[in-house]
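[Automated response] Your request has been received and processed.

Submitted sequence:
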Amino acid sequence: MTVVPAALLSLAAVIGVLPAVVAALAHGAAVFTDPARYAATVLSLPNAATAGRPAPAADWTTTGVLLGLLSTCIAVVLATAAVHQRTPELSAHQPVARAVRTLRRLHSGRIGDYLAWLTLGIAALCIAIASQT
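Generated structure:
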């Protein structure tokens, strides 16, 4: 359970340090966020590389590094608290206990349940995005 997250974090750190990868990602972001340039690239039209806006600056900034470190520290603290926190015994009549039991029944660990919750989450995300436009 710790090898995969450690490998992904290490890979993310290595990718963030390599200038060629950062420049390629910035170029891809510029192409993806410019509809005309994206269409020209996808359709292999001539002059696709020169059309549209220039790639955004992908340099390291002090604010970016500090925000990245802060968010990483918060995630580690929350994950550690969630893993090592002992849950007190709840009375069967408490509303929290009923909610926890209901959630545990809904999350049985079967693949069908995961797919149902994934579908519900994607539908909710689509509704949220559609309501913004």
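Summary generated for your ticket: The chain has a mean pLDDT of 80. Helices lie at 3-17, 19-33, 35-42, 62-84, 95-106, 111-132.
If you did not submit this request, please reply to this message.
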